[in-house]
Design brief:
Layout lengths: L8 H25 L10 H10 L1 H35 L1 H15 L7 H8 L3 H24 L4 H9 L4 H39 L4 H11 L2 H29 L1 H7 L1
Helix pairs in contact: 2-10, 3-4, 3-6, 3-8, 3-9, 3-10, 5-6, 6-8, 8-9, 8-10, 9-10, 10-11
């Protein structure tokens, strides 16, 4: 018997809204009670005013950030899952290459931005490349974990049926791995957005990250918070888009875990 109570659909929908409203109310209260200057922490109405002041500028930047995030995530997802398939299909290949991949992943990706700019230039390809470098490894590792977690009795069943290696992958190992794959994808989409904003902070040409950086020069903190708020909304939307895809592709996974 599960220790967690099953919440109704209405409760699951309303709780995040209530939590968000409470957080905004607390933020507003803190700025009012402690009389915090706008330069250090703008109040919610001041952030809304910044939205009203520069809506086209903000939404154009959000579109740039979204495009970079999705492009990088798409490449990272395809590359990470393909790499996982290759590494789990050959023990020798895994032993030969995985230590180098782990070592490369340990390198702070921000430190590679100057090299990417040198090699590629100040354009969207640099930002997409950084997103790929950040999101690739978690997706690959999650997919590998799923592909190597197939129960032994299923392996025995495929052998008894004389199933080929390809059929075993497609009919047994891959479906069994899908819940774990989506764990990596949910982590990867969040990291992709972070990577896009970090790249924009470094390249300073377009996007929400560029707006956040530029507001430091003009001391326009409300506009910075408006860009940060848009970034958060993008993150929520992208994460739950992957969650919805998971429910469509593997609806049985939630029932098993519950």
């Amino acid at each position: 018997m599960s220790g967690r109570r099953e919440l109704s659909a209405g409760t699951r929908t309303s709780l995040p809204v209530v939590g968000t409203i409470a957080a905004i109310g607390l933020w507003w209260l803190v700025t009012a009670v402690f009389d915090i200057e706008t330069l250090f922490l703008p109040s919610p109405p001041e952030v809304v005013d910044a939205f009203d002041r520069e809506p086209a500028y903000l939404f154009e930047a959000a579109w740039v950030t979204l495009w970079v995030t999705l492009a990088g995530f798409g490449v990272a997802a395809a590359g990470g899952m393909l790499a996982a398939l290759l590494l789990t299909s050959s023990r020798l290949l895994e032993q030969a290459t995985l230590p180098m991949i782990v070592a490369f992943n340990a390198v702070p990706k921000v430190s590679l931005v100057p090299l990417l700019i040198l090699w590629i230039g100040y354009d969207s390809r640099t930002k997409v490349s950084l997103v790929v470098l950040i999101a690739f490894f978690p997706i690959m590792i999650a997919t590998m974990a799923g592909l190597t977690s197939t129960p032994a009795d299923l392996h025995e069943l495929t052998r008894s049926l004389s199933a080929s290696r390809l059929k075993t992958y497609l009919k047994v190992r891959l479906p069994w791995a899908l819940p774990q794959v989506f764990v990596g994808l949910k982590l990867g989409i969040t990291l992709s957005l972070i990577g896009a904003v970090v790249a924009e902070l470094q390249t300073l040409n377009k996007g929400l990250g560029a707006i956040i950086y530029s507001t430091q020069q003009s001391f326009d903190t409300p506009l910075a918070f408006a860009a940060i708020t848009l970034t958060g909304l993008l993150g929520i939307s992208l994460f739950y888009a992957v969650v919805m895809a998971e429910r469509l592709v593997v609806p049985w996974a939630q029932k098993i875990s519950g």
